[in-house]
Amino acid sequence: MFLQNERGLGVKNGTLGTIEQVSAQSLTVQTDDGRSVQFDLKDYNKIDHGYAATIHKSQGMTVDRTHVLATPGLDAHSSYVALSRHRDGLELHYGRDDFANQDRLVRTLSRDRAKDMASDYERADPAQSYAERRGITFRERVAEIVRKVVPEKVRNMFDGLRSPSDGPGPDHRRSPEQETPERERSGAEALRRDTEAPEREVAEDPEKEMRRLRTQALVRHARAVDAIFEAQEMGGEVTPEQVKELQKARKVFEEVRPYGSHDAEAAYKKNTELAREAAGGRINRAVRALQLETEMRIHPKRRADRFVERWQELGQTSRHQYQAGDMSGYRATRSAMGDMARSLERDPQMESILANRKRELGIAFDSGRRLGDELGFTHGLDLGRGRGLGI
Question: Could you tell me the pTM of the whole model?
Answer without folding.
Answer: 0.39
